[in-house]
Task: inverse folding
């Protein structure tokens, strides 16, 4: 068994969703925790600053009222100094005898006694005083860090549980896909029934609709093959029966011109039927649409007329090709089969000495191929039926006496539909017989066939 390497694709939707969702949750929690940490630090700084200013105002009021400032005015987490004329007039019991802040108003962070302090000071060189009040900030930062850690640890602990919950949610969320796969694996080879879209989530409707379209195409293909087999068997049965009778007569020694003519006609009908069956099989193969390219209908018509000219000349018929270059998107072989069947059909049902006219017109947005003849034509009520497989006007006893199998216009109709073209049958205004018009849209390929 050959193993194929899948590159650039997701091997497991379930694993992809679980990993991505967990990563998004972790990243979101990290960003939220980081933002909360920053906000907590800002609020702690603002709280410390307000407390320092309140204590600063208390000491400043005592200085203004010339009241002795006790060294134990605040707890050990607060420090203050009051300098006047470069002499330390008052200070807290935990403060040094050297200045702990620079002269000038504002907040500063200083390190003293192995701790970090937030200080607020007001000083003046003219008045020769300096008042400094500080408070420990490392305590608040430690408190904020402790709060953040206590908030993050539960999130870390809950991640495994969250992963299990996400796995369960994704597992049950993907169940409709597993159910669809199970139903497909259990489907019988001849079951082309459609799935009901209401049974599946909205996200799966494109898949279900595509499967239904595929089933419809497969069903149509199988039905065509069934009809084809049945019709082919029916059409071949008649000339085979005639051959059997003819051979029986020959074996009995009853040989006459009528028997030989009947045998010849039966063989000719079988030959035409088999050739057209092979043509129909070739043009209906699934890879034809994939080989569509630019084709010139005028050039194809010239080549077909060249191939059929000897047979047309044998009946003393005239054939004329009018028009100009007509480029369409299609399969050159299938288009050749279409033109060949149209011209051959027109020649067969046109009496000796008649005329066939082929016209290729390059119109705005379309290329039109028209094949007309001077034969007896077809009544309007038969226009739709003559494109069906093995249908002939009047059955095997056709009024013209021409040998045929009823596949010609059916092949033409199939190729036209394959190329997204429309087929129109009418009476020829120029020659009086049948006129078959095929209109090709430039650059259009039938989506179902493609």
Result:
């Amino acid at each position: 068994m050959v193993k194929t390497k899948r590159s650039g694709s997701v091997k497991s939707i379930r694993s992809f969703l679980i990993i991505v969702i967990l990563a998004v949750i972790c990243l979101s929690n990290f960003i939220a925790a980081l933002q909360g940490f920053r906000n907590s630090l800002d609020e702690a700084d603002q709280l410390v600053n307000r407390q320092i200013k309140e204590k600063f105002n208390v000491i400043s009021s005592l200085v203004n009222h010339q009241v002795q400032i006790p060294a134990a005015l605040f707890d050990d987490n607060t420090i203050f100094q009051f300098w006047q004329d470069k002499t330390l007039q008052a200070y807290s019991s935990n403060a040094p005898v050297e200045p702990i802040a620079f002269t000038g108003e504002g907040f500063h962070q200083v390190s003293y006694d192995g701790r970090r302090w937030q200080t607020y000071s007001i000083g003046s060189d003219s008045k020769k005083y300096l008042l400094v009040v500080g408070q420990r900030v490392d305590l608040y930062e430690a408190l904020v860090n402790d709060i953040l850690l206590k908030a993050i640890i539960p999130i870390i602990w809950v991640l495994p549980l969250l992963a299990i919950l996400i796995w369960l949610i994704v597992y049950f969320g993907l169940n409709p896909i597993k159910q669809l796969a199970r139903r497909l694996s259990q489907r019988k080879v001849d079951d082309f029934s459609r799935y009901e879209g209401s049974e599946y989530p909205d996200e799966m409707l494109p898949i279900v609709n595509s499967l239904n379209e595929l089933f419809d195409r497969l069903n149509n293909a199988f039905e065509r093959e069934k009809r084809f087999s049945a019709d082919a068997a029916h059409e071949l049965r008649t000339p085979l029966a005639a051959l059997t009778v003819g051979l029986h007569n020959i074996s009995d020694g009853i040989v006459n011109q009528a028997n030989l003519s009947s045998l010849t006609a039966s063989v000719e009908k079988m030959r035409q039927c088999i050739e057209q069956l092979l043509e129909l099989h070739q043009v209906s193969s699934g890879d034809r649409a994939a080989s569509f390219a630019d084709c010139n209908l005028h050039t194809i018509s010239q080549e077909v007329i060249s191939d059929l000219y000897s047979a047309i000349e044998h009946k003393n018929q005239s054939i004329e090709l009018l028009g100009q270059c007509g480029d369409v998107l299609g399969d050159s072989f299938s288009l050749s089969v279409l033109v060949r069947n149209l011209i051959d059909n027109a020649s067969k049902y046109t009496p000796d000495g008649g005329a066939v006219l082929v016209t290729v017109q390059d119109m705005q947005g379309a290329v039109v191929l028209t094949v007309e003849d001077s034969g007896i034509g077809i009544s309007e009520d038969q226009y739709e039926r003559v494109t069906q497989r093995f249908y002939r006007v009047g059955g095997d006893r056709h009024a013209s006496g021409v040998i045929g199998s009823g596949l010609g216009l059916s092949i033409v109709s199939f190729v036209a539909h394959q190329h997204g073209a429309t087929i129109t049958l009418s009476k020829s205004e120029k020659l009086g017989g049948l006129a078959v018009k095929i209109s090709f849209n430039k650059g259009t390929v039938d989506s179902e066939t493609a």
The chain is about 50% helix and 20% strand. Residues 13-64 form the longest helix (52 residues).
